[in-house]
Specification:
10 strands, alpha/beta, four-stranded antiparallel sheet, six-stranded mixed sheet, 8 helices
Length: 271
C-alpha cells in the first residue's frame, strides 16, 4: 500500500522514496529514492532489462503492485488530475496505421479535450504538435505508410498535445538515424527551455547521457547514481558517463550492493 506526504509546489516534478515494484516472485524495483527536477531533462540510463520501463510506468500511474512513496507534480502517481498534465511515449509507436498523421492527432486531441467548444483549441494544438516533430509535410500521409522513425514522431506529437508539464519518454530515439536523433534532442531541449516542461527520458545508449541535465543510472532494479553528468565524471575520475557508469557498477559489485547477475539484468521480463 502506497503512502504519501503533502509537498509544496516548489518540490521536484517527481519524488520517490522506497519505491518498490514486485512482479510475481521477482522484485523489479528495489526501494528506489530519487527526484526529478522541474524544467530539466533527466536521463534514465541503464542496460536493457534493468527496470527503466517499469519505473516509467510507475511514474505515469500504469504500473501495478507499486509500494513506497511516489509523488508526481505534487500528487500521488496515477491521480486522475495528472492525466492532462503528463505526456507518455512508450517504446512501440501508439498510432493507428489506417489514419493519417493529422487524423491520429485529431482523435487523441478529442479524447484529451472533448466538446464542440474546444474545436478551435484542438485544431491549434494538433497543428503545433505536428510542426514540433517536423511532420507538417506528412500530415495527410497514412501512418502505416510512414517509416519507423516517422511513426515514432507521431507518437511523440500525441504526447505533446496540450503542452504537458511532464513528458515521460521511453527510449524515444532507439533505432533512429544520427540526424533524427540530433533533431529530437534539440526539440527536447527546446521544450524544457522555452516551455518549462520536465522531461524524463530513458535510454540504454550512454552517449545520450551527455545531452541530459541530470542522470539516474540504473542496474538490476537499483539506482547507482542520481547526479549531473559532470558530477558523475568528476566523482569517478572518468572521461565519459559510460566509463563512470562502469566504475559505479564495479563498485556496486565489489561492495555487494547489487543483487542480480549480469545475465539476470538483461532479461526482458524485468522491463
Amino acid at each position: 500500500m502506497m503512502n504519501y506526504s503533502s509537498r509544496p509546489p516548489e518540490e521536484p516534478a517527481v519524488h520517490a522514496q522506497d519505491l518498490t515494484v514486485v512482479r510475481g516472485p521477482r522484485t523489479v524495483l528495489r526501494g528506489l529514492d530519487f527526484t526529478v527536477p522541474r524544467g530539466r531533462i533527466t536521463g534514465l540510463l541503464g542496460p536493457s532489462g534493468c527496470g527503466k520501463s517499469t519505473l516509467m510506468r510507475a511514474v505515469v500511474g500504469t504500473q501495478a503492485k507499486v509500494t513506497g512513496t511516489l509523488d508526481v507534480l505534487g500528487s500521488p502517481a496515477g491521480h486522475p488530475a495528472l492525466r492532462t498534465r503528463i505526456g507518455y511515449v512508450t517504446q512501440a509507436p501508439s498510432v493507428y496505421d489506417d489514419l493519417t498523421v493529422r487524423q491520429n492527432l485529431d482523435y487523441f486531441a478529442a479524447v484529451l479535450d472533448p466538446g464542440r467548444a474546444a474545436a478551435d483549441r484542438r485544431h491549434e494544438n494538433v497543428t503545433r504538435a505536428i510542426a514540433d516533430v517536423d511532420l507538417t509535410t506528412h500530415a495527410d500521409a497514412l501512418a502505416g505508410n510512414l517509416s519507423g522513425g516517422q511513426r515514432s514522431r507521431v507518437s511523440l506529437a500525441v504526447a505533446l498535445l496540450g503542452t504537458p508539464e511532464l513528458l515521460v519518454l521511453d527510449e524515444p530515439t532507439v533505432g533512429l538515424d544520427p540526424v533524427l536523433r540530433r533533431d529530437l534532442w534539440q526539440l527536447f531541449h527546446t521544450i524544457a527551455a522555452e516551455r518549462g516542461a520536465t522531461l524524463l527520458i530513458s535510454s540504454h545508449v550512454m552517449d545520450e547521457a551527455e545531452r541530459c541535465h541530470r542522470l539516474l543510472l540504473m542496474r538490476a532494479g537499483e539506482i547507482l547514481a542520481d547526479d549531473t553528468p559532470e558530477a558523475l565524471r568528476t566523482r569517478t575520475g572518468s572521461d565519459t558517463v559510460e566509463d563512470a557508469f562502469l566504475r559505479l557498477v564495479d563498485e556496486a559489485i565489489a561492495t555487494g550492493r547489487t543483487q542480480e547477475t549480469t545475465q539476470e539484468t538483461t532479461k526482458e521480463t524485468t522491463r
